[in-house]
Design brief:
- The complex is a heterodimer.
- By secondary structure, chain A is an alpha/beta fold.
- Chain A has helices at 21-29, 42-45, 52-56, 104-107, 119-130, 159-167, 205-211, 218-230, 248-262, 280-288, 311-325, and strands spanning 10-14, 34-38, 61-64, 72-73, 86-88, 92-93, 113-116, 140-143, 173-179, 196-201, 234-242, 270-275, 277-279, 301-303, 306-308, 334-336.
- In chain A, helix 9 runs parallel beside helix 11.
- Chain B is α/β, with parallel strands linked by helices.
- Chain B has helices at 13-22, 55-64, 143-150, 178-187, 189-201, 212-224, 229-246, 262-276; strands at residues 4-10, 26-27, 35-38, 43-47, 70-80, 91-99, 102-106, 117-123, 138-140, 159-167.
- In chain B, strands 1, 2, 3, 4, 5, 6, 7, 8, 9 and 10 form a 10-stranded mixed β-sheet that branches.
- In chain B, helix 6 runs antiparallel to helix 7 (229-246).
- The longest helix of chain B is centred in the last third of the chain and has 18 residues, at 229-246.
């Protein structure tokens, strides 16, 4: 917007974080930004009186050092990945994209981005956990892009690249980098490895433009997927959330039919499916702020603290979507949140 | 229509006078402290005196008399600057606020594009006369308290602190005369007014989901169909969903009878709800 400061016009940096290489890279990329040194990132990120959506109009960058916990148990909101050793971490808090259905707007008071610059500490925490797994016959899966879109930041900070380098040769550790970005080219010079899953969230174009307005359009995401597959990367497709808009069956049927003309389903590692769902507290917090999205003014049921499409309706929808998808991808590769 | 108001906060008469004159503000005698208003521009000014002691009571008294839903506070005042880092008459937008007696720091949200230099500031209890040796920032006697109080009432993005360097903290005799302070502000008036006008635009970026006519529709439905408080809460959510799905289309006409029984009333509410799902 014309009369607003550009994103990252201000960089708040923890005094303890300033000497880390990632902090130096960030500061070197934004030489025109105002730098403000802070004691702790929460002094800025957790301030009272912030307006998430207002801050999204002019996002600021906060560089900080992640303290314990450095690794979190996998969330019940995600699909079952056939291993109990599922974790996530938070190299970044918040996302460049700000999709309507995203839980981050209910999780955080701030729309600003926090980048934790001590990624080696987070990597060491994973190594420690992998050496003591819940089930030693299964690998440890870590989602490193759960509270952000890591690849979307790659032109600013080479985080995905560093995480891919970290996991190279670690057979018992798998990392998932989930994204809506079209920035595969930022890592396309790297050799693909089996224990990195590049996951793209894809939606029909009408859903992208209505609910994911700041993310790249579908076509550019699909191009990135095609390039990643052509280079031999393991790719997961995430049709999650499926938004049950009017005529959703026709919209998603056409979408899958067109998508799998472009992509070969046999090359896809797996797909995840799920309807819109969100922690009840986050949902209510967002709705109180009068979001400009009808998602927050539709009818849902509440099950175990989760706001979701009512169970019968979602099972029906998931079954129907699954039926369409099995024309393109084998059923055992479809992971569903029911 | 949401009423929006900008309130300038000053400490000294010499700070306020240039703005009273420029913005054609008129004294509001209903307050027992300096308060000046221009209803046409929706700009007002209150004087809080030097130091912290009267800030809370004056801002609270002021707000109690206002029915406006959105108030922006802009503190405009003088500050001491370091001689080797600042110039007399230089204008700063404050991005970090310290207090010499508190560990609490404030970070105003700076969303609006502006041409001022930014700086941090430290609020002190007593005037500094040693050149500000202890401080690496601007120094004043109000900003921290003003931010602390205003942030209890309005979001951070609706508070701005603008400071003009009046002296180098080198003793009473070096502090400029009131007329000189006013002249310094007059010199920077265009720049400050430009900022104030830009700052006003922030709240235009937040528009409510429902129009006035939507709220009138809800009010009418409540009265006609004897809706309970909880049903009205639910109805507002359905109306918001309808409005977001239907842009500016009018809400549906409800040609139904006023309910006569409790069961009938529930059915009526369900009927309205279904109508709004489209």
């Amino acid at each position: 917007m014309k009369n607003l400061k550009p994103n990252f016009s201000h960089i708040y940096v923890e005094k303890d974080a300033i000497e880390y290489p990632l902090a130096k890279i960030a500061l070197s990329k934004f030489t025109g930004s105002t730098i403000i040194k802070v004691d702790h990132y929460k002094d800025v990120f957790n301030r009272k009186g912030q307006n998430f959506q207002m801050q999204k109009l002019s996002m600021k960058l906060i560089l900080a050092k992640k303290r314990e916990p450095l690794l979190y148990e996998g969330s019940g909101m995600i699909q079952d990945f056939d291993t109990p050793n599922v974790f996530y971490n938070t190299p970044i808090l918040n996302c460049l994209y700000n999709c309507d259905y995203c839980f981050l707007q209910g999780m955080y008071d701030s729309g600003n981005l926090v980048v934790f610059v001590n990624e080696q500490d987070m990597m060491d925490a994973i190594d420690a956990r992998v050496s003591d797994p819940k089930d030693s016959s299964k690998p440890t899966v870590v989602s490193i892009s759960y509270n952000t879109d890591l690849l979307a930041m790659e032109n600013i900070l080479p985080l995905s690249r560093r995480w891919i380098d970290y996991v190279r040769g670690k057979k018992d550790t798998i990392i998932e980098i989930r994204t809506k970005s079209a920035l595969f080219n930022a890592i396309s010079d790297m050799n693909p490895i089996d224990n990195v899953i590049l996951s793209w969230t894809l939606s029909p174009e009408s859903i992208c433009s209505q609910y994911e307005a700041a993310a790249p359009p579908l076509k550019r995401r699909v191009n990135s997927v095609k390039n990643a597959l052509a280079d031999g990367w393991k790719v997961r497709l995430c049709f999650d959330p499926i938004i049950l808009v009017e005529n959703w069956f026709e919209i998603y049927s056409r979408f899958f039919n067109e998508l799998f003309v472009e992509l070969n389903g046999n090359q896809i590692k797996d797909v995840t499916l799920g309807v819109f769902r969100m922690n009840k507290d986050y949902f209510n917090r967002i709705r109180k702020r009068d979001p400009k999205s009808d998602i927050y003014f539709s009818e849902y049921s509440i099950e175990k603290g989760i706001v979701a499409v009512e169970s019968q309706e979602r099972e029906l929808a998931m079954n129907e979507i699954q039926n369409i998808l099995t024309d393109f991808i084998s059923k055992d590769k479809i992971l569903i949140w029911k | 229509m949401i009423q929006k108001l900008q309130c300038l906060i000053t400490a000294l008469k010499a700070e306020s006078e240039p703005f009273i004159h420029h913005l054609k503000l008129e004294k509001d005698n209903s307050f027992d402290f300096p308060c000046f208003i221009n209803q046409r521009l929706n700009v007002e000014l209150i004087g809080v005196g030097v130091g912290k002691k009267k800030i809370e009571s004056r801002i609270c008294d002021y707000l109690m008399s206002k029915s406006h839903e959105i108030v922006q506070f802009i503190n405009i005042g003088v500050a001491g600057g370091k001689k080797d880092k600042t110039n007399i008459g230089e204008l700063f937008l404050i991005n970090e606020i310290h207090d010499e007696n508190s560990t609490q720091k404030y970070y105003p949200d700076i969303l609006i594009d502006h041409d001022m230099t930014e700086s941090s500031i430290t609020t002190v209890e007593n005037p500094i006369h040693d050149g500000g040796k202890k401080y690496d920032t601007l120094v004043d006697m109000e900003a921290h308290e003003i931010f602390s109080i205003c942030s209890k009432f309005v979001p951070n993005h609706n508070i701005a602190i603008i400071k003009l360097v009046s002296d180098y903290m080198s003793g009473h005799e070096s502090f400029p005369k009131p007329s000189t302070v006013s002249e310094l502000f007059i010199e920077k008036m265009d720049e400050i007014i430009h900022f104030i006008n830009q700052f006003k635009l922030i709240d235009k970026m937040i528009t409510p989901i429902l129009f006035e006519k939507d709220m009138a529709w809800v009010k009418n439905a409540k009265k006609k169909y004897l809706l309970t408080v909880s049903q009205v809460d639910q109805l507002i959510k359905y109306v918001k969903g309808y409005r977001l799905r239907n842009n500016e289309n009018p809400l549906p006409e409800l040609e139904i009878q006023t309910p006569k029984t409790k069961k009938n009333q529930k059915n009526t509410f369900n009927f309205i709800r279904e109508k709004l799902k489209t």
